[in-house]
Amino acid sequence: MMTFQKFIEQIIDINEKEWNETDIEFKKVHYKKGDIINKEGEVFRNIYFINSGIVRSYFIDKEGRDFTWYIHYSSEQANMKNLFVVDYASFIRQEPSKLFFEVIEDTELFSIDFNSIQKLYNLSAKWQKLGRLMADEGYYNIHHRTFSLLTENAKTRYKRLLKENPYLLQIVPQYYIASYLGITPQSLSRIRKEYDK
Question: What's the rounded mean pLDDT across residues 172-187?
């Protein structure tokens, strides 16, 4: 399991002296399966880095249907990772979020609040680089996801997930996977049967 410091050091070139000079506290927090980290209508006041576990972000439409927006996770077994848990639009504007964030397996996170991260950005260009890279990653993920939902059919989306990250298919309940792909569990079951032949 990677420490938060080691993770940050993979992104930006920061030495031990610079790290110790930050005097900013990255809090370690634990959530149990089923816990809600942030609700629709609440401002997202922290950015979380997942050290272990899985978090699902989702929204509920006017008919009460639940749609998975993103799956955030960290695992050495995964080809890809989505390590940051944040509604970036809510966080950077300090506006109410439109999403819920639910823990779907016991999860350990490191947390930094909005004011603390602003202080970090003022310390040096290295910390500003971290903020830019997080924003870049957030933009890429949203663009990739939106483009996929708008231009690809369900089979193509499933095939892409199977290729890019079969790990998720092993650990995340199928009704969440179906919701993430924008289809019903029944449709996912039919698609999987075709691929299992």
Answer: 93
3-state secondary structure 28-72: EEEECCCCEEECCCCECCEEEEEEEEEEEEEEECCCCCEEEEEEE
- Residue 8 φ/ψ, nearest 5 degrees: -60, -40
Give the N- to C-terminal CA distance of the chain in Å, as an integer: 37
Domain count, the chain: 1
pLDDT in tens, 114-170: 999 898 888 888 889 988 888 888 888 888 888 988 999 999 999 988 888 888 888
Amino acid at 114: F
Q: Is residue 16 part of a domain?
A: no
Per the CB < 8 A criterion, the answer to whether 8 and 69 are in contact is no
36 within a domain of the structure (yes/no): yes
Report the SS3 class of residue 152: coil
CATH number where 163 lies: 2.60.120.10
Q: pTM of this prediction?
A: 0.86
The boundaries of the domain holding residue 130 are 24-196
In a domain, 191, yes or no: yes
User: What is the DSSP code (8-state) at residue 22?
Assistant: T
